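step 3/5: co-fold with adenosine-5'-triphosphate
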Amino acid sequence: MSRFLTLGIESSCDDTSVAVIEDGYKIRSNIISSQIDLHQKFGGVVPELAARSHLEAIGPIYQLALKEAGVTIDDIQLIAATYGPGLVGSLLIGLSFAKGLALSTQIPFIGVNHIEGHIYANVLGHPEIKPPLICLTVSGGHTDLLWMGKWGSYQILGQTTDDAAGEAFDKIARVLGLGYPGGPYIDKIAKGAQDDLEFVKKGNLTNTYNFSFSGLKTAVINYIQHQKQLGLELNVPRIAASFQRNVVIQLTAKLFHAIEKYDVNTVLLSGGVAANSLLRESCRNQTTRLGKQLFFPELQLCTDNAAMIAAAGYYHYLHAGPGDLDVTAEPNLKL
Ligand SMILES: Nc1ncnc2c1ncn2[C@@H]1O[C@H](COP(=O)(O)OP(=O)(O)OP(=O)(O)O)[C@@H](O)[C@H]1O
Ligand SMILES: [Mg+2]
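step 4/5: write tokens
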């Protein structure tokens, strides 16, 4: 049986990644070169450094992805690359590389929305997923609650009114003196810790699917300052666990309200924060109780990777054919 091979390219932020996937869901290779060490000392991504690093990495990673998949470029039937949202200098490296490759080989090309990529990360290994569904996308730059009636059609029910969920994790990790990016550090240190601190009044942003994390963030920072002023030692695990619990309660309250209202049977989590163990566990418990099907990507597929970009590109190609080679980097691209 003939297989359809898609080459995916991702460079929207601080990970350079190239992947080869088969028939839209089977990963043949997914090489990710992280720039974490480069940006760690700055506590966040430095755009200029990120772009230079993508430029150095993209060629060798492309070769490695083909090699690990056991194919040559002649076996590839579609090239899919992220064209937004993200850092413009970073986006341009992967996108230009992909377009150049497509032009020189005549292989069809398609531009992919990075956030759609995060959603399609769920399809990798689970081609049985079918809309209608509700998806919660929680990443470093986005907090989107979506209803999908069919693939490719997104109704945004709610978004963050200030910080994204991942951004809040990163900021609190920084004030607690944990590493960057902060989500995984908070997740780890919170395991088994007391989580009883209430930082904000309940009932914030009720009657809307929108989210807000800046009030919580400020409350945690004020609590830390207050403890310091009193000369008390900080109980970092307790603060981290309580912060995480507060975030997860807000996310799941709105998610499960939407699941009930839209009466869907399928629920997806996506984006880097979908790696959070408390969020996964809480969603798992509640969906099991309601008899709904929950999907979340494998840990490595929650954060940026090219396999998810290839998956999203493949499904768009199947439904609407190749994209336009004139597509340009769009830092603020929306769903
Ligand atoms: N276990 C975890 N718990 C909570 N947050 C996590 C965990 N693992 C990763 N994150 C968070 O996920 C974010 C990175 O996710 P992702 O790579 O999807 O974001 P991004 O690509 O920077 O943003 P976007 O996709 O919106 O452009 C970081 O903020 C990181 O702290
Ligand atoms: Mg991302």
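step 5/5: annotate
The first helix runs from residue 36 to 40.
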